[in-house]
Design a protein that fits this description.
Helix content of chain A: over 70%
CATH class of the largest domain in chain B: Alpha Beta
CATH superfamily of the largest domain in chain B: Periplasmic binding protein-like II
Largest sheet of chain A: none
CATH topology of chain A: MetI-like fold
Oligomer: heterodimer
CATH architecture of chain A: Orthogonal Bundle
Distance between the termini of chain A: 39 Å
CATH class of chain A: Mainly Alpha
CATH architecture of the largest domain in chain B: 3-Layer(aba) Sandwich
Number of helices of chain B: 21
Distance between the termini of chain B: 52 Å
CATH superfamily of chain A: MetI-like
Structural class of chain A: mainly alpha
Order of helices and strands of chain A: HHHHHHHHHHHH
Number of helices of chain A: 12
Number of domains of chain A: 1
Largest interface: A-B, 66 and 55 residues
Shape of chain A: globular
Radius of gyration of chain B: 23 Å
Strand content of chain B: 5-15%
Number of strands of chain B: 13
Helix content of chain B: 40-55%
Strand content of chain A: under 5%
CATH topology of the largest domain in chain B: D-Maltodextrin-Binding Protein, domain 2
Largest sheet of chain B: 7 strands, mixed
Structural class of chain B: alpha+beta
Chain lengths: 295, 449
């Protein structure tokens, strides 16, 4: 009995450091944000007042918030779809490669390895509307009459950012899908071939069931990351021009660090948190069903 | 499955929590001590100095001054940390909440007002008196003044003037413009052969469009703030100014400039891709570094006027000061070190790091042989005179009504830049966009009152 109690204590002792870190990094910001979202907290002012849900009402009645929210949703869906299609295709192609597979894999993963600041500066330079390589190339090839303004034309900028995000995120999907593909036993394909299954049937009945849980989890993670993506957009366009690329995280940043209204900024992030929790719950329900089906 | 569900939720929470604001206590107040009386005692302690002199030569001079100070005061340690102005602003505003601010720092005049408002800095009147109050320009001192006390000490000054390319004007047989109409005509005429007449920058991460609009509005005798410190973007002067710069954007500017910040804008001129630009004497070192062959072709003139016989004016002067933070445990060391930066030799060496870019904030420097012997200062003597004159006439943006938090917010929120972007990108009517921006600014002003 004594030993059991001792074992219980030591168990807690081992997880204590992790609990402290999680508490400090996760629980405290959540609670402080919840609290500040109910106050007039200002970044540089020492005093503030408790205003209950006034910040939430103010944000939910701001057209700018809904616009940012719609842009965030569109940004997430388009980026995610593009990343999955490109990443998935690249993984399938790479899975078939027999020679220099490692070299190709390294080359394809390169975009993912770059820090955001490098990616942002490089694309800003490549797409610069005066001296950028791509706009000048398009003009010199006769494909455009004037220099295309990829980062300042309201009708081009969002698509350009989506393209950059797909280029950046697809390798991560590729590597994970490739790993999942490599775990599928080859004898299943051989048996299917003997039974006369077509390539499409093999893909549908062997490949897809094996990798769908991995893809599902990737989608969950990427949804959270892409929806919360801040650095890439902020560094390239700052949310402009005319808020055409202002997503909810940039809206929250401008509120907190621009106007310094931390109370309102906290309220935005709490709304963001609630939305992401709902999305994740739905995703996990789907993955859970897949797992049950597999069993 | 439950475990994974939980870990997924925790991941979502963790990622979302990275965006949330952080709170904390404000720093404790500390009274400044008398610099003179402290001098007799041996200085002992460690201080941190944040400055924004990111370019090599200026950084080196400051480091050398700190090394000399530490040699003379062996019990003192000075830690120098360097940030760009943008990073500096984020750093001190966030640092203030957690008490993570330096002992002393440089600042922009608009920052100083916010710092005073947040009770984050202490008066430096004793240091100013020690150096000689009458050696500083009254306007420069007044930018850091509250309730009769000076909270900042000017380190150097500069002002915005119009820069042009002599060779391009000569080739097109054009005179240096004196009015905005002449400027627009010349800029349009020079927009050819891969050169833009003038870039109009309105990236929302910088204050450039506010700066350009302020030039026009000030030249028309108006202001972007009313006397009772409300935003004033719907006045006739402001609407005319907005329309003027939209015309320049449409006819003479690269379309990409809708996202330009200060460096994007300056780089075009440095590389010889714009015929006109508006900047301080920092333009010289920029051109010298990037396009040395163009250095003989650049010059500056006073900002254009509405009518040629309108009185001379200065639209934007920047007196860059230093401040001592209330959190500092050793204000006496900060002040003693600051004083050494004004020693004639050190100060002249500091200014020479960006000749003509940084003009002396105190008298008795510009007439010394050492200062005058600088090659760039000799070469650009007439330009320096023009900038000096503009320094005397101008104020920081919005400071024509005296230092105010509103003036700082006018430039730091990107609202005017957003207004221009809205008109350019969405085709919003000028008056409608101006009214919306004015209302937005007034709403932000109200939040700090």
């Amino acid at each position: 009995m004594k030993d059991k109690i001792k074992s219980n204590y030591s168990r807690w002792l081992f997880v204590l450091p992790a609990l402290i870190i999680v508490g400090a990094l996760l629980i405290y910001p959540i609670f402080s944000s919840t609290y500040f979202s109910l106050t007039t907290k200002h970044l540089t002012k020492p005093s503030y007042k408790f205003v209950w849900f006034k910040n939430y009402i103010s944000i939910l009645s701001d057209v700018g918030f809904y616009k940012a929210f719609a842009i965030s949703i569109l940004w997430t869906i388009c980026s995610l779809l593009g990343q999955i299609v490109i990443g998935f295709s690249a993984a399938l192609a790479l899975h078939r490669v027999k020679y220099f597979k490692g070299v190709y894999r390294i080359l394809l993963i390169i975009p993912w390895a770059f820090p955001s600041i490098v990616i942002a500066l490089a694309w800003k330079w490549i797409l610069n509307g005066v001296s950028g390589f791509i706009p000048n190339l398009l003009v010199n090839m006769g494909l455009a009459s004037g220099l295309p303004q990829f980062l300042s034309d309201g009708s081009l900028v969002f698509g350009t950012l989506i393209f950059i995000n797909i280029w950046f995120g697809a390798p991560m999907i590729m590597v994970n899908v490739l790993s999942a593909l490599q775990t599928i036993p080859t004898d299943q394909y051989e048996a299917a071939q003997i039974d006369g299954a077509s390539k499409l049937q093999q893909f549908r009945h062997i490949t897809l069931p094996h990798i769908k849980v991995v893809v599902g989890l990737l989608v969950v993670l990427r949804t959270i990351w892409v929806f919360n993506n801040f650095d890439l957009i902020y560094l390239i366009t700052g949310g402009g021009p005319a808020n055409a690329t202002t997503t909810v995280p940039i809206y929250a940043y401008n509120m907190g660090w621009g106007t310094k209204l931390l109370g309102k900024s906290s309220a935005v992030t709490m709304l963001l948190l609630i939305f992401l929790l709902i999305v994740c719950t739905l995703y996990f329900k789907v993955i859970d069903r897949w797992e049950k089906e597999d069993k | 499955m439950k475990k994974r569900f939980l870990s997924g939720l925790l991941t979502a929470v963790l990622v979302a929590s990275t965006l949330v604001g952080c709170g904390g206590q404000q720093g404790t107040k500390s009274n400044g001590s008398d610099a003179g009386s402290q001098e007799a005692k041996e200085l002992d302690g460690e201080i941190t100095f944040w400055h924004s002199f990111t370019q090599g030569p200026r950084l080196e001079v400051i480091q050398k001054a700190a090394d000399n100070f530490m040699q003379e005061n062996p019990k003192v340690k000075i830690n120098i940390e360097t940030f760009s102005w943008g990073d500096f602003y984020t750093k001190w505003t966030t640092g203030l909440a957690s008490g993570n601010v330096p002992d002393m720092s440089t600042a922009l005049p608009s920052h100083v007002v916010e710092m005073m408002d947040s009770e984050a800095i202490i008066p430096v009147d004793d240091l100013i008196d020690d150096i000689g109050r009458d050696r500083f320009a009254k306007t420069a001192l007044s930018e850091g003044e509250k309730d009769g006390k000076c909270y900042s000490i000017p380190l150097y000054s500069h002002a915005q003037v119009m820069w042009y390319r002599k060779d391009l004007l000569e080739a097109a047989n054009l005179e240096v413009p004196k009015t905005w109409d002449e400027f627009a005509t010349a800029a349009k005429a020079l927009t050819k052969d891969g050169v833009y007449g003038c870039s109009f920058p309105c990236g929302s991460n910088d204050l450039m469009a506010t700066r350009f609009l302020n030039f026009y509005v000030r030249s028309a005798g108006g202001s972007l703030l009313t006397d009772d410190l409300k935003a004033n973007l719907t006045s006739k002067e402001a609407i005319d100014g907005i329309n003027f710069w939209l015309d320049i954007y449409k006819n003479c500017s690269p379309k990409d400039s809708v996202n330009y910040a200060v460096l994007d804008q300056a780089n075009l001129y440095y590389q010889g891709k714009t015929a006109f630009d508006f900047n301080s004497g920092f333009q010289i070192s920029g051109v010298k570094t990037n396009s040395p062959d163009l250095i003989d072709q650049i010059s500056c003139a006073p900002l254009p006027k509405i009518k040629v016989d309108d009185p001379d004016y200065g639209a934007e002067t920047s007196n860059i000061p230093m401040v001592v933070w209330a959190n500092s445990k050793h204000p006496e060391i900060c002040k003693a070190f600051m004083k050494t930066l004004y020693d004639t030799d050190t100060y002249t060496e500091f200014l020479a790091a960006t000749p003509v870019g940084m003009l002396p904030a105190i008298t008795g420097i510009s007439d010394t042989e050492k200062y005058k012997s600088n090659e760039t200062i000799q070469k650009f003597a007439s330009e320096e005179k023009i900038i000096e004159d503009a320094v005397q006439r101008g104020t920081a943006i919005g400071f024509e009504h005296g230092p105010s938090v509103q003036a700082g917010l006018l430039t730091s929120q990107g609202i005017i830049e957003g207004m221009f972007q809205d008109i350019i990108t969405n085709g919003t009517d000028v008056k409608t966009a101006a009214k919306a921006a004015e209302d937005k600014l007034n709403e932000i002003f109200a939040s700090v009152q």
